[in-house]
TrEMBL record:
One BP annotation, GO: regulation of cell shape
Domain of life: Bacteria
Molecular function via GO: LPPG:FO 2-phospho-L-lactate transferase activity
One GO cellular component, as annotated: cytoplasm
InterPro entries with a match to the protein in the record: CofD, CofD-like_dom_sf, Gluconeogen_factor
Annotated source species: Deinococcus terrestris
Protein known as: Putative gluconeogenesis factor
Pfam assignment, any one: CofD
């Protein structure tokens, strides 16, 4: 990989070889025409004595010595670099990853991904192979599980989806594994992930996650950036078709019943956004919404006023990644047009593209999901105004679960950027 395009290594390697050859010629000229002429003569006579003109021409011996000397010089440079890297605690393969990330991936498209849950982290794990200019804007209104317990105890934003995104973008497999480790025993620890506890610690130590973001990115070796949509704790409130209001993300699906979710809002409504999030949106070449749960992962991030305003004013195309399946209670009975309509209504901007899976979901997978009250989201039943915005790609990951393939999804999204980049 040291010779991969864009690393900036080959040019200096070629320069080293050229300078070495020129230096060899200069040294030969010096010894032949200067006071060391007798040394050059003895060297040539000795080298000629080792080779027989009948076996190979005399100049071949000189070329062989020159090649061996050049190989030795390159080996010495390599070993010197390896020793210097190890003295700083950096393994050579880690250095290669850093150079590849900073030189090659840094030229990739600037993409902002908005959402939460496993859908967003799944997308990020695919995107990081194409670009390091990734900014994840994460929904932080979850009030269940480990996140809910930490929110209640520390009055902080929900860290769970942030942890998943940090793990997806981390350049260290060991750190990614540790972040997702969930304790299954221990009083007060059971149910928490290490990543959630780490973010809670940084939030306490620095008086909030806003001031801890820089430290988090450096410690976790994140390829890109991960930010919460807001650093102020908030509660998701859903308005149902029967007039009821349901507070809290975790209990939404169970309380919908026969009704449908018509709209969602955050309480309090006037939530601030991080300046770094707004800057990333302004500089973005592509803004991706999803994939993920419509009302509990995607829309809550768009309910932060400054985030929604920045997306509306952005010149970058907005892509909505359609879900593969409906979600029991949350989106039961909703078609693709309803999903896009909900995004448009809350964002007040219609997505430029709607990315839809073209791979059929296997019958066995459909049947299993049907038993849970979910069905395949039908992309065919849409109006003519939306049909022209659809973009189809084979996005289904093979297996027993209906989920997006991270590599296929990333490739399809990169292809929609104004400047398609092939690395």
């Amino acid at each position: 990989m040291w010779l991969a395009p864009g690393l900036g290594v080959k040019r200096w390697l070629v320069l080293f070889v050229i300078c070495t050859l020129i230096g060899a010629v200069g040294f030969l000229h010096f010894t032949w025409t200067g006071p060391l002429h007798f040394v050059a003569t003895r060297w040539i006579l000795w080298l000629n004595a080792l080779t027989s003109p009948e076996v190979m021409p005399l100049y071949v011996g000189g070329m062989t010595v020159m090649a061996l000397a050049l190989a030795g010089a390159l080996l010495s440079i390599m070993m010197l670099s390896r020793s210097m890297l190890r003295s700083t605690g950096t393994a050579p393969d880690q250095a290669l990853d850093v150079i590849y990330s900073t030189r090659t991936l840094a030229r990739g498209p600037r993409i902002v991904a908005v959402g939460g849950g496993t859908g967003l982290s799944n997308l990020l794990s695919g995107l990081k192979a194409h670009t390091s200019n990734i900014t994840a804007v994460v929904t932080v209104s979850d009030d269940g599980g480990s996140s809910g317990r930490l929110r209640e105890a520390l009055d902080m934003i929900a860290p769970g989806d942030l942890t998943d995104c940090y793990a997806a973008l981390s350049d260290s497999p060991v750190l990614a594994r540790l972040l997702l480790h969930r304790f299954d025993r221990g009083e007060g620890l059971a149910g928490h992930t290490f990543g959630n506890l780490l973010l809670a610690t940084l939030s306490e130590e620095q008086g909030g996650l806003q001031d801890a973001m820089r430290d988090v990115h450096e410690v976790l070796r994140v390829r890109g950036q991960v930010f919460p949509a807001t650093t102020t704790p908030s509660t998701l409130v859903a308005r149902l078709s029967d007039g009821r209001e349901v507070r809290g993300e975790s209990g939404l699906a169970a309380q919908v019943g026969e009704a449908r979710v018509e709209a969602v809002r955050l309480d309090p409504p006037d939530l601030p956004a991080l300046p770094a999030v707004l800057d990333a949106i302004r500089q973005a070449e592509l803004i991706v919404l999803g994939p993920g749960s419509l009302f509990t992962s995607i829309l809550p991030a768009l309910l932060v006023p400054d985030v929604a305003r920045a997306i509306r004013e952005s010149a970058a195309p907005v892509v909505y990644v359609a879900s593969l399946m409906t979600e029991p209670g949350e989106t039961t009975g909703l078609g693709l047009g309803d999903h896009v309509g909900a995004v448009t209504g809350h964002l007040r901007r219609t997505p430029d593209w709607v990315l839809v899976n073209s791979t059929p979901v296997p019958p066995a997978v459909r049947a299993r999901y049907a038993g849970e009250g979910a069905e395949v989201l039908d992309p065919g039943a849409v109006g003519s105004d939306l049909r022209g915005r659809l973009r189809h790609a084979p996005l289904l990951h093979p297996g027993e679960q209906a989920r997006h393939d991270p590599d296929a999804l990333a490739e399809a999204l990169v292809a929609l950027t104004p400047r398609r980049v092939t690395l």
